[in-house]
Amino acid sequence: MTEARYTAAEILTVLAARHLSDGQVVFAGIGIPLLAATLAQRLGASGLTILFEGGVVGAFVEPGKLPPSTNDQRCTKRANMVLGSADVLLLLQRGYVDIGFMGGAQIDQYGNLNSSFIGDPGDPRTRLPGTGGGNDISSLTNMIVAMKHEKRRFVEQVDFITSPGFIRGGRTRAESGLPMGGMFRVVTELAVFGFDEASRRMKVLALNPGVTREQVQDNTGFTLVFDEKTAITKPPTEQELSMLRMLDPERLFIG
Any alpha helices (H) in 66-180, and if so which ranges? Predict the structure, then answer.
């Protein structure tokens, strides 16, 4: 992309925020997912309820005080309630959560996420944080994933399925005992992706400004499907950028 007035992390965050709606209940991970959910709250979705794995329901994040962990006590300020981890995960099982929102180290063509390890399971090259509540979230909600677009992250098959997407495509998610939910959107600094209704393979819905099809494919480790009417996303507005930078003035997450 040509030099722009926003960073890759900023466009990723803004585009992710646009997929959230007023009145939704969102189970958000730390980092870009939380920042995007908070941005959506401040830009018209004031009725958006944010849940944290640590038990906070209705979190309200103050500008410049983004928590580094879902267990950070600043998450509780002005929250609706604070539950135990088991109780907040039970809200997923009871169907009270609309959207799961997180990132991952790897994602594959069917939207499966890996945050467990990279390499041979017997002798992994890299150990990652693990599931936390990631498996529960992806098993029981419609998922939005926000992550950096790199070939080593967008792989044909993840080394381990920490958080299930559409498993092996087609109806394999439902056949594996997960009839509800699935991957809804994947947002990166290059494009916005959905999933084909029949094959459940990742599909490019929109390219970000200045990005070509070739760029996206070159940074992806599997063959992408492109929507027949592939759109171009609208760049972040001044209002969106101003609010985002107010929320993260030290640029901890937006670079």
Answer: 85-93, 134-140, 172-175
Question: How many angstroms separate the first and last alpha carbons of the chain?
Answer: 17
Domain regions of the chain by residue span? 8-247
- Residue at 122: amino acid letter: G
Sheet hosting strand 56-57, strand order edge to edge: 81-82, 56-57, 49-51, 25-28, 99-102, 142-146, 182-187, 191-195, 202-207, 225-232
Catalytic status, residue 53: yes
Please enumerate in sequence order all residues whose Cβ is within 8 A of that of 136, keeping only pairs 6 or more positions apart, or say none. 89, 92, 93
Which of 10, 53, 189, 240 does the annotation list as catalytic?
53
55 three-state secondary structure: coil
Reduced to 3 states (helix: H, G, I; strand: E, B; else coil), residue 86 is: helix
Total-model pTM: 0.93
Residue 64 to residues 43, 67, 68, 170, 244, Cα–Cα distance (Å): 17, 9, 12, 43, 10
Selection from 163, 170, 127 nearest residue 147 by Cα: 163
Residues 127 and 112: their CA atoms lie apart, in Å, by: 18
Return the CATH number of 8-247, one of 2.60.40.10, 2.40.50.140, 3.40.1080.10, 3.10.20.310.
3.40.1080.10
CB 109 within 8 A of CB 95: no
Decide if 11 contacts 189 (C-beta within 8 A): yes
Please name the residues in contact with 81: beta carbons below 8 A apart, sequence gap of 6 or more. 57, 58
Q: pLDDT tens, 92-148?
A: 999 999 999 998 899 999 999 999 999 998 899 999 888 888 899 999 999 999 999
